Amino acid sequence: DGGITQSPKYLFRKEGQNVTLSCEQNLNHDAMYWYRQDPGQGLRLIYYSQIVNDFQKGDIAEGYSVSREKKESFPLTVTSAQKNPTAFYLCAGGTGGGYTFGSGTRLTVV
Amino acid sequence: SQKIEQNSEALNIQEGKTATLTCNYTNYSPAYLQWYRQDPGRGPVFLLLIRENEKEKRKERLKVTFDTTLKQSLFHITASQPADSATYLCALALPSNSGYALNFGKGTSLLVTP
């Protein structure tokens, strides 16, 4: 099936650890995005990439990093510099016609 | 700074009635506006897009209006059903140096009771 695949669904991180969230797509989208959602909050843009080997910071990029080496893949690394990483992370692809979202990764700091 | 406002209070309506959700925005003129549905623990699902030169767009029981003078969009669900219960998000495309990225409102929770 076509879509955006995020893994893992649940992720637990110890204090001081870096973790990487996977996002893969087979929709042939040039543009991909990472959002963070906290309880009762809207989606906040972390990073986005309009094309391979290029990406831009969103509103809350501090403590996060991304790469876009392949069109199909846009992994997000949550670094130890992110002081409050517990949240629901959503990856999306698409442009003006509407985004397709993955099912999300719930990250919890333990 | 840009701001997107949706009703923070949940909307409770009876099955069969029309649900109307509001999205207001400030400080920019978006090229288009989108509406998404989000169920608990899931990613948002795209519903409708309306462009700045369109006043109204319909899809089955859904209708969206876009008033660029008032800086407001209304999202209507007619003949509502309990299965329509979800959070509905309004999103606006914000131009940047590298293209457009969507900014989302906090969403309005809709509960349709039998």
Proportion of strand residues of chain A: over 45%
Report the total helices of chain A. 0
* Regions with little confidence, pLDDT below 50 for 5+ residues of chain A: none
Helix count of chain B equals: 0
Low-confidence stretches of chain B: none
> Tell me, what's the shape of chain A?
globular
Reported for the largest beta sheet of chain A, the result is:
7 strands, mixed
Approximately how much helix is present in the residues of chain A? under 10%
Radius of gyration of chain B: 14 Å
Helix content of chain B: under 10%
**H/E element order of chain A:** EEEEEEEEEEE
Oligomeric nature of the chains: heterodimer
Q: Whole-Å distance between the termini of chain A?
A: 34 Å
The major pleated sheet of chain B works out as: 6 strands, mixed
Descriptive account of the structure:
- The complex is a heterodimer of chains A (110) and B (114).
- Chain A is mostly beta strands and 110 residues long.
- Chain A has strands spanning 4-7, 10-13, 19-25, 32-37, 43-51, 54-57, 64-66, 76-78, 87-93, 100-101, 105-109.
- Chain B has 114 residues and is mainly β.
- Helix content of chain B is 0%, strand content 61%.
- Chain B has strands at 3-6, 11-14, 19-26, 32-38, 45-51, 56-59, 62-67, 72-77, 86-96, 99-104, 108-113.
- The mean pLDDT of chain B is 91.
How is the secondary structure organized here?
The complex is a heterodimer of chains A (110) and B (114).
Chain A: E1 4-7, E2 10-13, E3 19-25, E4 32-37, E5 43-51, E6 54-57, E7 64-66, E8 76-78, E9 87-93, E10 100-101, E11 105-109
Parallel strand pairs in A: 2-11
Antiparallel strand pairs in A: 1-3, 3-8, 4-5, 4-9, 5-6, 7-8, 9-10, 9-11
Chain B: E1 3-6, E2 11-14, E3 19-26, E4 32-38, E5 45-51, E6 56-59, E7 62-67, E8 72-77, E9 86-96, E10 99-104, E11 108-113
Parallel strand pairs in B: 2-11
Antiparallel strand pairs in B: 1-3, 3-8, 4-5, 4-9, 6-7, 7-8, 9-10, 9-11
Short description:
With 110 residues, chain A is mainly β.
